[in-house]
Every structure is written in C-alpha cells, then in structure tokens.
Write a structure and sequence with these properties.
Layout: E1 4-9, H1 10-14, H2 23-34, E2 38-41, E3 54-58, H3 68-71, E4 76-79, H4 81-84, H5 93-96, H6 106-112, H7 122-130, E5 132-135, E6 138-139, E7 157-158, E8 172-175, H8 186-195, E9 200-202, H9 213-220, E10 228-231, H10 238-251, E11 256-262, H11 272-291, E12 295-300, H12 310-320, H13 323-326, H14 331-340, H15 345-356, H16 360-365
Parallel strand pairs: 1-2, 1-3, 3-4, 5-8, 8-9, 10-11, 11-12
Antiparallel strand pairs: 6-7
Helix pairs in contact: 14-15
Length: 377
Amino acid sequence: MILNIGIIDADLMGRKKHRFPNLASMKISNYNKSIGNNVKLITSYNDDLTAYDDIYLSKVFTDTVVPDNILKLDNIHLGGTGFYFDKAPPLNEEIEHFMPDYHLYDDWIAIMSQTENKRKSVNAQFRWYTDYSIGFTTRGCFRKCPFCVNQKYDRVYKHSSLCEFYDPNLKKICLLDDNILGFKDWKSVFEELNSTGKPFQFKQGLDERLLTKEKCDILFNSKYDGDYTFAFDNIADYDLIERKLDLIRSLTDKRCRFFVLVGFDKGGRYDDDFWVQDIFDCVKRCELLFKYECLPYIMRFEKYKESPYFRLYNTLAAWTNQPSMCKKASLVEFGKISERCGQTSRTKYTKEFCNKYLEFEYYANMKFGEIDTIKQF
C-alpha cells in the first residue's frame, strides 16, 4: 500500500530568518521514498492536511509556534527538541541511520528564490540546503550544562560513520556533533573527514576547554569551512579559556569566534543584582576575546527578555553579532553609527547603563584588536 506522507519543518514556517534544514525530516523523507511512499514537504498550515496518511512534524526550537489545531490532528507525529527539550524520543533506528533526503527542500527553494532578497545570491541564502552533507559522527556530551538539550548523556560516543550521510556530489560537510573533542577516538573522525578533500565544519561549536597542542595541530591544518567556532558560556572558565587562547594564538592566526551565553542563571536568581552582574560578565568575556582577536557572538537565553536591561542586551548583540561592525567600532561608536541610520535607542541604553555604573564606560569604549593584543603566531 502506497502512503501519502507529509513532512513539516516547523522552524521553517515559524521562524522568519531560519535557514537550516531539519535533519530528522530529511531522514524520514528518504526512508519513506525508499519504500515507495509519496512524500511532500508541507510549507503552509493552510494546506489540506487531512489528505495525508501520516504527517511528521519536527521542530528544534522551543519557541517556534505551531497552531494548536495542527497538534490535535489524528495523523500527526511530533518530534524534536523543540517539543521535548532533552527528552526527545529518538528516531526509529533504521531511519536514524538512513541517508538524508538532500532534495526534500528543492521545490521550496525554487519558489523562495523568486521572492527572496535579491541583494543576496540564491546560493548564499540556501547554501545549507544545496551545498552540504549534514549529520552526526558522534553524539552526546559529558558537560551536562543546564541550558543544553544534551543533559541526558554522560559521555561522547560514536554515532555513525561518515558514509551514512556523506554525498560526494555536495561541496561541503556540516557536522552537528555535540562535543567532538570529548570523543576518545576524535582523531579518526578528523582523518575520515580530511580524506574526503571537502571543507567541513562543526556547526554546534567546539569545546575549547579540551584543546591540546595535538588537537590544535590537526584542527587548524584541516580543510575547515568558515570560522572556528567555540563557546565561552561561563565567566568561571575565564582563566582556563585564557590559557587555551594562548595555545591557539601560539599556533595560528586563523579567525575564531565564540558563542557568549547571556541571561542564564542555573540557580534561577533573576533579580537586579544578577542582571547587572550578567552584563558585566558578558563584556568581560568580550574583552578577553578582543585581546586575542577572537569574535564574540552573544547568545541570549530567553529569560533575558524579563531583564530591565533587555534593550541593552539587544544592543550588545547587535554590535558583536555583526563581525564587520564589531571589528571596527566600539559599543559607543556603534551607537553613533546606528544613530545615523535612525536607530537612536542603541546609544540611549548604553548611556543609561554607563551613567548608572561608571565602570561600564571602559567596556563601552573598548575595541577589537586594541586591548594589549597578543600576536604570537
């Protein structure tokens, strides 16, 4: 019996700027095609969803909105961290290890490429859908960070060989591994990746705290795709991160960026003292990264919206998360540039915080590459 299967990537429909394929959806799609079923990517909740025998709806982000009436359909199957956070049920084992359907989004891309912003090439906007083999070589992490969906794991373990998701016809490889540097056989993974001759990247970021000279030598001599991305989530790691930054800059001058988590307190202490300290912890981490000519990328935990300084958080993120701006302007200068574009509030909230906390003025004026920069390489 041939079934009509619908695939819904909820993040695709619920997030305006989301441009990354859903791996589970691609695996479910290709598996169903392999057994003869008809598969279609559903791109509107207004479609006749009763026409499908089964609909597989997945979302990654918890704040992606899905209409309640859709969730109540008899033919709907839900999955993903967006629904279950760290308790998401795994895919069927056979589907989990099935080659993804790299053509699932083709029709959607063809339609969107006619209407999207013409200032960007089609390839730039949809490169994750058209250029990359995507998958996991390892799963799990031992860190158990309370803000992370990987708390159920105690270790990093081998998930699949590269051949399960590698398509040699695609230009690049994107790995979604949770903590590849925490895997005991990490070197074999890099050897397998480098043997393809294709550029690759670990999109979730790398655990800089686990770097050694051997790991740096292999990592920085691989055919890496884009920036080397790490994380600096906790000010408590300041000294350790600085030692690893010293190691990095003794070996390479390649561009590195760090996710900088803000707005999160594992004890749930969201009072004014916390918000003030959190902002200072943020800019202190940025200062250290500037010193080693690494770019911060501020990640705002959703609780930040409850802060009396949430507009300052937005200003800080607008500044650091634009590399071209962050590298040439201080926060104060960024505010003045924004004013010329009609965005006066960015100057306002910085000034207000400086007036209230005078020591913040130093951080508001610090600049990338001008903080006793260490250039060892």
